[in-house]
Amino acid sequence: MLGLGLAAVFILGAFLPGAHGAGRKRAAPVASLKQRQAGLTAQSRSALLDLYALDSRLAQARGDLGRLRASAEALRLEQERVRREIAVVAGTLRASQRLLGDRLRALYEQGEPNAIAILLGAASLDDAVTRLDELDRSALQGAQAAADAQDGRAKLRGLALELAARAREVQTLEAQAARTAAAVSSARAQRVAYLASLARQRRFTARQIAALAVRARHVVERAQAVQVGGEPSAPTIVAVPTTEGARTLTVTATGYSLPGHTATGLPVGFGVVAVDPAVIPLGTRLTIPGYGEGVAADTGTAVQGTTIDLWFPTLADATAWGRRTVTITLH
Known about the structure:
This protein is α+β, with helices and mostly antiparallel strands. The protein has helices at 4-15, 30-110, 115-121, 125-230, 315-321, and strands at 240-241, 247-256, 272-274, 285-288, 292-298, 307-311, 323-330.
C-alpha cells in the first residue's frame, strides 16, 4: 500500500520518548524531534558565544590580577629598601648623638674654651680667627648632623607609612581581582558543562531519529506480512470518496487503555488504532474526529467489521471517550 511507509513513520514517531521522558506523556513525533534538535543546535551556538565572552573576561581578569601581583611585589621590595634606609639613618643618628655627647662631656670636664685664651695663645691673628672658626664649625656640624639624621628618619618613616597604605590598597584590589577571576572561571566551567550536556542531548536525539527510521522499516515489513498472510476475504464496504487517495468510513469507535504491544510488535501508544484488517488494512493512516491522527497498527478478537479501538494514555481518558460513531478518513 502506498501510504504504508508514511503510516509506519507516523506511529513510530508517536512511540519515541519525549524530551524529559515524563511518565505516560504522549511521545514526540518526528517533527517534534527535529524541532528539538534544531533548538538544541541554537542553544549550543548561543552557549558557545557565551563561552567566548567568558574566555575574554577571564583573560582580562587574570591579566589584571597579574599586574596587581607585580605591583604588590614592587611595593614589598620598596618597603624593604625603605626599612633598610631607616635602619642606616637610625645608626647615623645614634653615632651623631654619641659624638655630640662625647664632645659635650669633654667640654664639661675640660671647661669651655675661652675666646681670650685662644687669642692669647695664638701665634697670629689669622691663627686665632682660624681656631675660633674651627671651634664654632665643630659645634655646628655635630648639631647639624644630629638634626639631619632626625629629619631623614622622620621622612623615611613617613614614606614607610605611605608605602604601607599603598600596599594595603593593592592587596585589597588583588583580592577583588582574584575573586573576579575565580567567579569568571567558575561560570566558564558551568558553561562548558552546559555545552557538554547539550551535545549529549543532540547525540541522543539524533539516535532517536535514526532508530525511528529503522523501526519504521520494520513496521512496514510486519504490517505487510500480517496483511498478506492472514487477510480474510473482505466484505463489501460502502465508502465515500474524498480527495485523491483518501476515503471516508463510518465506524463505531471504542476507547481503551491497556499496556502491551500491538499485532505488529509495537508498544501501544497514543495514535494506535485497532482495526479489522479485512476492512481497514494494517498500516493505513487515519484521521479520527475528536481524537486526531492515528494508524491502523493493531487487531483484536472483538474488533470486527466497521469497529475500531482507540488507545488512550489513561483509563479516565478512555472512559470519557466511551463508545461513539464517527466518520473517519482513510489515507
